[in-house]
Amino acid sequence: MGREHWKKIWVGSAGNMVEWYDWFVYASFATYFAGAFFPDDNPTAQLMNTAGIFAVGFFMRPVGGWLLGRVGDRRGRKAALTLTVTLMSASAILIAIAPTYAVAGYGGAAVLLVARLLQGLSVGGEYAASATYLTEASDPRRRGFASSFQYVSMTAGQIVGLGLQIVLQRTMSDGALHDYGWRIPFVLGALGAAVVFYLRRNMLETDVYEAESVEDEGEERGTLRALWRHKREAFLVIALTMGGTVAYYTYTTYLTKYLSNSAGLPKQTATLVSFTALIVFACLQPLAGRLSDRIGRRPLLITFAVGSTLLTVPIMTLLKQADSFWPALGLALLALVVVTGYTSINACVKAELFPTRVRALGVALPYAVANALFGGTAEYVALWFKDAGAESGFFWYVAACAAVSLVVYVSMRETRDLDLTRMKDGQPSSVTTAS
């Protein structure tokens, strides 16, 4: 890819990293601030409360997907990306200054809830805006490779958050972390968002969007009416996201808590396992994305679904029995290698399903719905099964979601060779030649 392509990918990915750092740092530090906002009587109940607020953020994602997807299709990808980071910065500031239960009772939890609602709005549009931007900004023969950087940056955001957690765990006492140390990552997140705001204000719009905007000034750009013409593709996005998002949040967001709360590993060890596994996971994304440019998207999606359906129960069962760093790391890496078949290419697959005039909304809204129903609730469902004394039920739930998506992957069309510049409201009129 040329220098201009790399510049667009860099700016889009850097902003995405900060967005997802702020999103995931809530989950990674929840074990420290759960007691600050809720009565200190049951650690699992506290985690369920914070996980519930985490899930609420997901239920705002469809609203953010609709609002910011519309902005992205009508005003441009750049406008949508700039607005998402503004909302994320505001939410990080709110969490950083939220009063504790001892100071304001449930008032602190209310502030936390408002912050998560803002984060839900932001991330609801961020995923689609960045997926669309990275897909449109790349060389047509390298769309899988280029769009894989979305999950590289998402994972990098979580790595930075976990890395900061490791540093704080080794430089602050456990009491200090529970008392005030958990606020530090949110302060840094707000500062990072301010830097990204500047970068995005100066980013370049994609050529695909600019060419389409000159030809099409219709009032239906980015509207629900225009999306309804592509309802089959919208439902396809929901179904193909279902298994991937549950598996992703299980092995990233929930993994640290699972190793600490169920396997009994020390928090520091559990955090280090997640941190190390995610570094390897991030490095795998471009490799798998490039492979999809050669062999197609469906083979990778099918490999993920088969692996997740068959291996989730044994991996999670063995993880619960892991008593040290290396066994836990090995199992976590095996799980994330399987998940890579979905994460590396799902952004471009969804973007490739829709024409330019409704691409951002087409990706944003159905993806956000799927995440609200399955991704955002994964951690809460896991803790619910644990609290009910049937934790293994969650393992089967993850496997079942992957099995449903497998049916979709087998029956869907290949999208690698679609020409984004010639997709209209009907089926794509021609294809490009991939190398």
From TrEMBL:
Give the subcellular location. Cell membrane
Q: How does it sit in the membrane?
A: Multi-pass membrane protein
Residue stretches making up the Major facilitator superfamily (MFS) profile domain = 8-417
Bilayer-spanning residue ranges: 20-38, 50-68, 80-102, 180-199, 234-251, 271-288, 300-319, 325-349, 361-382, 394-412
Q: What Pfam families would the database entry show? A: MFS_1 (PF07690)
Primary location: membrane
Q: Tell me which domain of life the UniProt entry assigns to the organism this sequence originates from.
A: Bacteria
UniProt keywords (A-Z) are: Cell membrane, Membrane, Symport, Transmembrane, Transmembrane helix, Transport
Please report the name of this protein according to its UniProt entry: MFS transporter
Identify its protein family: Belongs to the major facilitator superfamily. Metabolite:H+ Symporter (MHS) family (TC 2.A.1.6) family.
